[in-house]
């Protein structure tokens, strides 16, 4: 009897170049949804807390070297190790706001010259998001937002390639937001998209990425 079936939560993913404002907006969205009394959690990938996440973090901080295929598969494994928990949370009604997901995985690795389909393969079977928000900013403008950190990838030339790779993945279901607007304008647009998605997604079964 459908009346007794609990509403599932929504999987909401924010994507974009480094310094596009994703992390700030994820935090604001989670606070907003909490304020409305909705069950919600902030997630991010890479999740640097696991053993695999620590290897990724060390690589990003340039403390270890790994070849491109190996780090790609570690990023993917870091999503796989959280997949079951993710499914359980969603089925129990918790909405997850996720800072980066498989699209970062493919875009960053493809920007190093790896084949896009090779990059997508290990992501197949992960849970497909109900909403992907792409925070669109030019690499030049992102670079102006204070200096990049010291982590790998945080360089203008590389970010230009990542922007191009995202364009290859972008499909009509993504919601593209102009990330050069004010924090408040962006926040309002994201809130609206998130509420619509949380309202409508329980009617849709969970589905898998790229199969
Ligand atoms: N990144 C992130 C990848 O290269 N592949 C992935 O699968 C994911 C999730 O890691 N520059 C890159 C993008 C970022 C870096 O992310 C760390 P953050 O959001 O700065 O912690």
UniProtKB/TrEMBL annotation:
Q: What is the protein's given name?
A: Thymidylate kinase
**Which EC number(s) does UniProt give?**
2.7.4.9
Source organism (scientific name): Platanthera zijinensis
One GO cellular component term: mitochondrion
Q: Which residues form the signal peptide?
A: none
Please tell me whether the keyword Cell wall biogenesis/degradation is annotated for this protein.
Answer: no
- Give the matching PANTHER family: THYMIDYLATE KINASE
Q: Which family does it belong to?
A: Belongs to the thymidylate kinase family.
The keyword Transferase belongs to this UniProt entry's keyword annotation = yes
């Amino acid at each position: 009897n459908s009346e007794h079936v609990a509403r599932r939560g929504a999987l909401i993913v924010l994507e974009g170049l480094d310094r596009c404002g994703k992390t700030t907006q994820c935090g604001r969205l989670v606070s907003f949804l909490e304020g409305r009394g909705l069950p919600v959690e902030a997630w991010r990938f890479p999740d640097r807390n696991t053993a695999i996440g620590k290897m990724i973090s060390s690589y990003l901080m340039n403390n270890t070297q790994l070849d491109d295929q190996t780090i790609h598969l570690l990023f993917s494994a870091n999503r796989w190790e959280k997949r079951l928990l993710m499914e359980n949370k969603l089925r129990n009604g918790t909405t997850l706001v996720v800072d980066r997901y498989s699209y970062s995985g493919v875009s960053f690795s493809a920007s190093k010259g790896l084949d896009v389909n090779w990059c997508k393969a290990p992501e197949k079977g992960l849970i497909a998001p109900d909403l992907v928000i792409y925070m669109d900013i030019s690499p030049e403008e992102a670079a102006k937002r204070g200096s990049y950190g010291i982590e790998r990838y945080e360089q203008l030339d590389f970010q230009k390639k990542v922007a191009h790779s995202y364009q290859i993945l972008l499909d009509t279901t993504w919601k593209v937001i102009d990330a050069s607007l004010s924090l408040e304008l962006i926040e309002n647009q994201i809130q609206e998209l998130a509420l619509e998605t949380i309202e409508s997604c329980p009617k849709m079964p969970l589905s898998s990425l790229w199969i």
